[in-house]
Design a protein that fits this description.
With 399 residues, the protein is mainly beta. It is 4% helix and 31% strand. Strand 22 and strand 23 form a beta hairpin.
């Protein structure tokens, strides 16, 4: 810009005339060459160059007084904006390169933004020039990616959000689609994690979401797409996890944590008792019942999960039965109770039809002064070899 007087300024163009005492206002990336009327380089004492530099140093010449760059430039532009006075072009009514401004026209604003940066002014011996080094911001015109997935029923084009539904304890997969106005290649990545599950996002925008065990309710995560040039966009994926009935689970430190089964031992001919304990993730009331009978004994199972097993007489070995737990809504779990019956030594048993079966005793008769003979017969449940011996003497005879 060219300042002529206290409050008059106008754009400076190639071919414009500059008079002694005029002030040239220059900003970043500006170079000015001034020539005299004879085509030779003008002497530096006829003009002043004021640069937008807030430092005390400024260029001055005897023919004019330099302006304090920043404050002077603000004053000039302020006067122009207030419309204090009209001004002709630097070259009069007809400027360089055929440009002209009619009388009564004025410069409203210079198409140059002066920012509070530091500038330097350099002068040469044969002329006056201003070289300023600054790099203004340049918009490369890159447009950010846009999510566009209209055929997808799970995508809302008005909000740019995805909405999916899955059942409790069930994973769900999908894919986020986007386009780039500049045709840049796009890559996708996880923007944020869900609070009630996990998600894996692949570079092509496909993803798999898995809710945490037994969770139902809302959840969400984000997917970010990038064009590799600084342009990004983020899509919200909302998940609705529907509740489903969870079966009971045997939850007892006395049971095998992997199978929910129990291992119990008892001695031969000895009953044993216990209890199956289960929990329900949905808080349903649980009931217990016998699922199957043991092969070598009997069992009673009560509604609270307690049970009593009685092995068959003289049985030893392995036996088992099952208890079924129900939540009343179709959810069940079955626990197997494995019974180990350890052997004990069984005494022999008089097993003779001639003996009293209830007592194992014999009743024999003979005449006075006449001997009588017989045999005690017994068996052993364990198969042991039996030996016989007199246990007591008769009171009125000998044996």
């Amino acid at each position: 810009m060219l300042r002529q007087g206290e409050d008059a300024a106008q754009a400076l163009k190639v071919g414009d005339n500059v008079a002694p005492g005029d002030v040239i206002l220059a900003s970043a990336q500006t170079q000015i060459q001034i020539q005299g009327a004879d085509g030779q380089a003008a002497t530096p004492h006829d003009w002043v160059v004021a640069a937008a530099d807030p430092s005390p140093a400024r260029a001055t010449r005897p023919a004019a007084t330099a302006l304090a760059a920043r404050s002077d430039l603000d004053d000039v532009i302020g006067a122009i904006e207030r419309g204090d006075e009209d001004a002709a072009t630097a070259a009069g009514l007809t400027g360089g390169d055929g440009a002209s401004m009619g009388e009564g026209l004025r410069v409203d604003r210079v198409i140059e933004v002066v920012t509070p940066q530091a500038f330097s002014v350099a002068t040469a011996n044969d002329g006056l020039s201003a070289d300023v080094a600054a790099t203004p911001p340049v918009d490369d015109g890159n447009d950010a990616p846009v999510f566009e997935d209209a055929p997808n029923a799970n995508f809302n084009p008005a909000t740019g959000r995805y909405s999916l539904v899955t059942n409790e304890d069930q994973s769900v997969s999908g894919q986020v689609q986007a386009g780039d106005p500049d045709g840049d290649a796009l890559t996708f990545g996880k923007g944020s994690d869900p609070q009630n599950g996990t998600v894996v996002v692949n570079p092509d925008g496909s993803y798999t979401y898995t809710p945490r065990p037994d969770y139902n309710g809302p959840d969400s995560f984000t997917v970010t797409v990038s064009d590799g040039r600084g342009g990004t966009a983020t899509a919200l994926v909302e998940i609705s996890v529907l509740p489903s009935n969870d079966p009971p689970k045997v939850d007892d430190p006395n049971a095998d944590p992997a199978t929910g089964n129990y291992n119990v031992t008892t001695e031969e001919d000895t009953a044993v008792s216990g209890q199956v304990k289960a929990t329900d993730a949905d808080g349903d009331t649980l009931t217990y019942a016998k699922g199957s009978d043991p092969a070598s004994g009997s069992v009673v199972v009560r509604a609270d999960g307690t049970w009593t097993y009685t092995p068959n007489k003289d049985f030893n070995g392995s036996d088992k039965f099952t208890v079924t737990v129900s939540d009343g809504k179709g959810g069940t779990v079955t626990s197997t109770i494995n019974i180990g019956v350890t052997p004990v030594n069984d005494p022999p048993k008089v097993d003779d039809p001639s003996a009293d079966p209830a007592t194992g005793n014999y009743n024999v008769t003979t005449e006075e002064d006449t001997a009588v003979s017989g045999q005690v017969k017994a068996t052993d449940a364990d198969g042991d070899t039996l030996t016989y011996a007199k246990g007591s003497d008769p009171a009125s005879g000998s044996v």
